[in-house]
């Protein structure tokens, strides 16, 4: 792929795409209305939501390709890199894109909760696959934003544009929750594999080598982004992945400290704690007893 090009403004993105700039901070681009398309990698200073209609090449997110199909949404946050690799075929993309600058939502309720939309940091191979009705909902939101952009700006314009963006993001949350349930043939039994990885982490001695297990480690082993993995576990169990890890960790502590002649210090070292007092603090927080007190009772 070509060198990465920085796109920090909506105007710059419009110029690259051959689209008209009607608003300095937001635009909805219809790729079917664009005459040409320049292939290069971009580092975006914008929030971007791409609705893909038909296959037109491999989308790249960072260094990883994703062969995406019709009816998908891909989300890009400021600072992320993406591009289109068409294999030299020069096929123009078909679909729509919503791009908006972080300044658009500054001082709004959306700015305070934008981090809650964790799909902006999902990997491209974790794109949102839409049903026909879901796609219609997305297009309807994009069309409403487009109409507001076309109107002469007044005191209500920003509020209505931001409200429609937030509405779209909330629909995407709903659609992702549906995907977690329906696309089990893609994700497999993540929870079961996660449990097996947790067991192996402690039984194989990885905890002594790598320290306490973290969400990023298991996400990497399962070839998922940390946020997608965390959201999937929360959907499956109702608990955070960190809570799941800590529960397994406490189970290991209980089993090991009840072995005759074992010590709290040795157990802490075996399980990856930096200091024994860290184990004691976590154990008391979760169990309500110190490890010594628990051992005496058992």
Describe the secondary-structure layout.
Layout: E1 4-7, H1 10-17, E2 26-30, E3 41-44, E4 47-52, E5 58-61, E6 64-67, E7 72-76, E8 81-85, E9 95-100, H2 102-105, H3 109-113, E10 128-129, H4 132-150, H5 157-182, H6 184-187, H7 190-203, H8 206-210, H9 215-221, H10 226-237, H11 241-257, H12 264-271, H13 276-287, H14 291-297
Parallel strand pairs: 1-3
Antiparallel strand pairs: 2-9, 3-8, 4-7, 4-9, 5-6, 5-8, 7-10
Pattern of helices and strands: EHEEEEEEEEHHEHHHHHHHHHHH
CATH superfamily of the largest domain: Regulatory protein AraC
CATH class identity of the largest domain: Mainly Beta
Average the pLDDT over all residues and give the rounded result.
Answer: 86
- What structural category characterises the helix and strand content? alpha+beta
Q: Termini, distance in Å?
A: 62 Å
Number of DSSP strand runs: 10
Q: What is the approximate shape? A: elongated
Strand content: 15-25%
Detail the poorly predicted runs: 56-70
Annotation field: number of helices: 14
Q: What's the helical proportion of residues?
A: 40-55%
The value of Rg in angstroms is: 24 Å
Architecture of the largest domain, according to CATH? Sandwich
Structure description:
The protein has 298 residues and is an alpha+beta fold. It has two domains: 179 residues, Regulatory protein AraC (Jelly Rolls); 109 residues, Homeodomain-like (Arc Repressor Mutant, subunit A), CATH 1.10.10. Helix content is 50%, strand content 15%. The chain is built from 14 helices and ten strands. Strands 1-3-8-5-6 form a five-stranded mixed β-sheet. Strands 2-9-4-7-10 form a five-stranded antiparallel β-sheet, with helices on both faces. A hairpin with a 2-residue loop joins β5 and β6. It starts with a strand and ends with a helix. About 5% of the residues have low confidence.
